[in-house]
Write a structure and sequence with these properties.
By secondary structure, this protein is mainly α. It is 69% helix and 3% strand. It has 4 helices and 2 strands, in the order ββαααα.
Length: 140
Amino acid sequence: MSQQTGRCDDRYIGGCETTAAEIGKLCYALKELAGIRSTAETAATAILTACERILEACESETPEKAKEIAEEAVIEIMTSCSFDDQVGQASTRAQTALKEARGALLKALPTAETHEPREDDERLDQSLVDSLLAKGSDGA
């Protein structure tokens, strides 16, 4: 994602030109991961709030009222625990997007055996690889 515009667009990753589709998959995965964090935080807050209500009710309410408050809070806790299913689904979507983007990016890299660009990808040439390795070895 471009820090300047906040949009996904063509960029260079490790000196390899990537397509908008590959960047889009990475952006999608980041969005899913942010959603996972938000869902988990919301669930944790709801669970802790319900627990606090139960504790307060036990200290300050009649037994009948405390039981009523506790029953309502337990239902809220159980409902909040459904975040597990939402997080699982979002994690699977993010993992799939990352695997697809990784696969596309790996196709753009030279093969380990020959250190030559793959035949189906003309975007990477030896001079680019050499310049990247030279930059990496001098600490830049």
